[in-house]
Amino acid sequence: MSAKPRRLWRRWTALLALLGVAVLARGYWNSTRAPVVRTAAVAVADWPAEQAPLRVLLLSDTHVAGPDMPPERLARIVDRLNRLKPDLVLVAGDLVSEKRTATHIYTPAEIVAPLGRLKAPLGVIVAPGNHDHWFRPDALRGALERQGLGVLQNEAVKRGPLIVGGVDDDYTGHDDIPKTFAAMDALGPGVPVIVSHSPDIVPDLRRPVAAVFAGHTHCGQIRLPVIGALTYVSRYGSRFACGDITDEGQRLFVGAGLGTSILPLRFNTPPDVWLVTLGPQGAAR
Questions:
Q1: Positions in the chain short of pLDDT 50
Q2: Quick one: pLDDT at residue 21?
Q3: What pLDDT was estimated at residue 65?
Q4: What pTM does this model have?
Q5: How far apart are CA 136 and CA 153, in angstroms?
Q6: Residue 285: CB atoms within 10 Å
Q7: Alpha-helix runs per DSSP H in the chain
Q8: Are strands 150-151 and 124-126 parallel, antiparallel or unpaired?
Q9: Do residues 274 and 58 lie in contact, with contact meaning Cβ atoms separated by under 8 Å?
Q10: Cα(252)–Cα(197) distance, rounded to whole angstroms?
Q11: 167 and 195 in contact (C-beta within 8 Å)?
Q12: b/e map of 231-242 (b: 16 or more CB within 10 Å)?
């Protein structure tokens, strides 16, 4: 190869390398940006008389780990979310990330501490995700409970007019929907809602509930032009991919999450949370 073609080859190689670095830098910036706050309303036919509408905040997939989601960043996000003044906060699992690209893995106490700053009159409820089961599930649950946060693993609790069922992680086979519904039924009348890490539970629900709140899919996390998302990590493909969905009469909300899995990169899938108002038809707040 003569000197001139060799110089051209080196220039093209350098240009492509710079382009690759720029793309990776953009993906990392996307992963660390402030979450988008998405809003929706759910009209509940049998909403209790005299009960004001309630604002439910869904966040998921915090995936605390370096470099993109140290506890300090999650604490800053929590402080901003508190300004939304939710009545109830639902956390749809995957609190931790043990990804191979992580620069630091934190202790259960460090992972959970920022969530202890969440403020809501009806409290904070957590349903575990697959990464939580792969990490240190008992230690995480203990850390959450010490922070005063409720953990539901195929259990239910009544908060105001809501009967909240928490389905344990479907992806790792810890879900038990009949047990969850039995726990909800035992609490008596109320407006039923479910929080689950994975939206894949929806086809197996015994009956519709007012709303299902989930995460897990990251809305694809890396969603490329033409190609689309690399994966939604769902056995239903894109059926429950992202956002405000009505599936065979069941309303559900699937968040993009706050952190990342495998790679600290996002493309066309900004971090987000959902602020959903539940109330009677025509109500506004």
A1: 284-285
A2: 57
A3: 96
A4: 0.92
A5: 15
A6: 11
A7: 3-32, 71-82, 108-112, 130-134, 137-146, 177-185
A8: parallel
A9: yes
A10: 12
A11: yes
A12: ebbbeeeeebbb
